[in-house]
Amino acid sequence: MTINTLTKGGAQREQMYCLRKMERVIVAMQDPDMGMKMRNQRLLITVIPHAMTGNDVIEWLIQKYNITEEEARHLGGLLVQYGYIYPLREPRSLLLRSDDSPYRFQTPYFWTSSRWPATELDYAIYLAKKNIRKQGELVDYEKENYSILHKRINHTWDFVVMQAREQLRASKQRRKADRIVLECQEQAYWLINKPCPGAFDVLDLGPERCNVLSSRVALNADHYRREIEHSRRALGRNRVKSSICLESFMKYSEQYLHHDPIMSGCLPSNPWISDDTSHWTINTDMVGIPTRLRVERWSFSFMELLNDSMGRREFMIYLEKEFSAENLCFWVACEDLRHGESSKIILKVEEVYKNFLAPGAARWVNIDSKTMERTLEGIKRPHRFIMDDAQMHIYFLMKKDSYPRYLKSELYKNMLAKAIVPQETKKSVFPFMRRQRHSSPSPAMVTQATEDDGKAKGAGPTGTSSTTNSQI
Amino acid sequence: VLQNILSLLFFLLPASALTTGIYMIFSTKPEMATQEIQPNETLTNLKAESDTLKTKLEDERAKLHDVELHQVAEKVDGLGQFIMKTRRTLKGHGNKVLCMDWCKDKRRIVSSSQDGKVIVWDAFTTNKEHAVTMPCTWVMACAYAPSGCAVACGGLDNKCSVYPLSLDKNENLAAKKKSVAMHTNYLSACSFTNSDMQILTSSGDGTCALWDVESGQLLQSFHGHAADVLCLDLAPSETGNTFVSGGCDKKANVWDMRSGQCIQSFETHESDINSVRYYPSGDAFASGSDDATCRLYDLRADREVAIYSKESIIFGASSVDFSLSGRLLFGGYNDYTINVWDVLKGTRVSILFGHENRVSTLRLSPDGTAFCSGSWDHTLRVRDRGYHLGYIPKRTTLSG
């Protein structure tokens, strides 16, 4: 009764991929040469063959995948949770114990992937069997499910009871050990496919996803034509040799190594560890003297300089000295146009034209004639991206010319010399005493304050009161 | 008439001529509008042609691949094993946490869950500052606005809504809610662009879209994925005009935001791509997939350049992010763990336990001091390196 769920849509499909991989692990575990050693395990008075201990499973995983015990316990635990290995003692507790608790491999007939989703009919038969076999063997949620099913598939109930009786009769003919094994296997299957409400449901899935085979996207002629067009364009593109590209990753991680708190730590201390927010306060936008790392970073790339509001400010001061500040002003105005509200586009384009592009404009920018022509033509039908060409031209002008000169300037060098290198905070004398974690003003409030213009606010307290309780 | 002749040629010439010879003609062809299918241009043939071209493209890409990343990285010091410690555990969601995002202030976060709750926390103090209940379940996407004054979220309602964050504790945030994006299927991811005024979304309807927040107007839509789109990330590039998306069609596409065109496409994963994230320089991006691997794609080399996987990792990666220097790649997985990879050498430097169910979302804080993971176990954890304070002295690394 194997349904090929891989071709079906649905969230099950993503799980199937993992289930198949787990099955490969399980098969490897049972390999006659490289697999686990299995032996008979005693369960009360019966001897169950082909069983192994929790310890065996963990040892094997450590050996096979060269992993730590913690990881092996975790991986083994997943195999139990998904029903590929089940415990013989305490069958309702689907945990892998790292001791001599006995476990067995689930038979492929009952693999999660073989019989998924579990059918109502099968479940009804299983519950009926339990009910017939021993009165009161059904637990609460099973009793509930039983009566729900009884109502829902009442028309086939005779068949259900008949099947249940038949299966019970057949099992009585088996050896006791085999019967116990089959009962354990079946129980394990249903513990996973119909777990107790509130218990961990390993087959809990996210919302349905569609793949290519069951897609909501119209895979029509247009779609393939688009793909073809894309491939053709891609074939003609310039590519860079791997050896050159990959080298840049080395350089980048080397350059930023000391700026990466997880790699190199941060000064004076990482706020998340020490509960001291100094690291954040000394790196704010409006701080008087910046840190050395911060100023150094401006020299890594033009983008780094512009992305830091202080860097941008410093650069502007430099450009003013050079009488080319209009370039940066123009760039900022173009960014504002590109990322601003649609409703303000026409207004902003007019402003930009008036201030930077019109003949005799107060801050006229020097763009090459072709770009200027194109831009002026485009302004007649203004849209968000109309300044892109001009903006890029000015950006690269600054990057190639003003930026390198700024880095060599006295202004920058003084900044670097003045910049502070914070002292590392020493380990607290009383490490068990946690510092108070101070709140900070919400960014929402900061903006509201500037908007409200000093109007008295009735807003909730978000000042510097130190509290560690939830406020909601 | 030209159209028909070309279609005929397409049939008569062998495949190699198709791609080299006719390419020259087709490359000057104007943009195709919706056309009817010509009698000799059936859907099967179109698909076959597309597949042939894709194979040819992979061959071209392979030609310039003269060295592997881990070979180039041989001269770099290894990292050893890292210990990461949990610094904060955020409890408050009553159901699976599906998504989270950091505020630019480096300490606040927004998180969303299956039961429709969206919570804004000051992760540093662990205080909850705002909470809103969406009218839908499975809020799979949430994002913090760059200004810190609003959050965006959406999920099974097929929409992306923006909630301005009010500081009046009595005000119901839902009252000022603004509906921005409208898709025809679930919202899988959303992100503000450089300002509060535009939002980029991806959806189960197979498309991505760019929206104007103020008017709710659709600015650009992106078609090209053949199935649900699950994730997206904006490029930190100088010209700031591209983004990457990943989907259930196993493809990762790089898009031009201005024209709506797909610039580059990569199809090497064996299953759904759950997460994409740019390398800090913008020259590459990483992806996490249900095939239990994370991969690195270089945009200039135009190919996959690294695979991060281990035989013992069976479950899919749901969420990936880089450390600030790009040396480490963090992956949250569906087997409840977080694996931390050395991006250059391809080895794993840490495996983190602690969550009791799938890790669904993972992001580094804006200044890289910590990373936050959200899980189906209803909690969020903020973690970082397990050393105590301290600054590791300059190491001598071999010069390149």
From TrEMBL, chain A:
Keyword Cell wall biogenesis/degradation carried by entry: no
A Gene Ontology term for the protein's cellular component: cytoplasm
Example GO biological process: G protein-coupled receptor signaling pathway
Pfam families: DEP, G-gamma, RGS, RGS_DHEX
Segments of skewed composition (Polar residues): 439-449, 462-472
Region (Disordered): 433-472
RGS domain location: 301-416
DEP domain span: 32-107
Annotated InterPro entries: DEP_dom, G-protein_gamma-like_dom, GGL_sf, RGS, RGS6/7/9/11, RGS6/7/9/11_DHEX_sf, RGS_DHEX, RGS_sf
The entry's keywords: Signal transduction inhibitor
The keyword tRNA processing appears for this protein: no
UniProt superkingdom: Eukaryota
CDD domains hit by this protein: DEP_RGS7-like, GGL
GO molecular function (one): GTPase activator activity
PANTHER family, alphabetized: LP21163P (PTHR45746), REGULATOR OF G-PROTEIN SIGNALING 11 (PTHR45746:SF3)
Descriptive protein name: Regulator of G protein signaling 11
Species, as recorded: Oncorhynchus kisutch
Record gene name: RGS11
TrEMBL record, chain B:
Keywords: Repeat, Signal, Transducer, WD repeat
Keyword Acyltransferase attached: no
Native organism taxonomy: Eukaryota, Metazoa, Chordata, Craniata, Vertebrata
Gene that this polypeptide is encoded by: LOC109893795
SMART domains assigned: WD40 (SM00320)
PANTHER family in UniProt: GUANINE NUCLEOTIDE-BINDING PROTEIN BETA G PROTEIN BETA
Placement of WD repeats on the sequence: 90-131, 180-221, 222-265, 266-307, 319-351, 352-384
Family, as annotated: Belongs to the WD repeat G protein beta family.
Top-rank taxon, per record: Eukaryota
Name of this protein: G protein subunit beta 5
Pfam families for the chain: WD40_Gbeta
An individual GO BP term: signal transduction
Signal peptide: 1-17
UniProt keyword annotation of Signal present: yes
Record's subunit section: May interact with RGS9; this interaction stabilizes both proteins and increases RGS9 GTPase-activating protein (GAP) activity, hence accelerating the deactivation of D(2) dopamine receptor-mediated signaling.
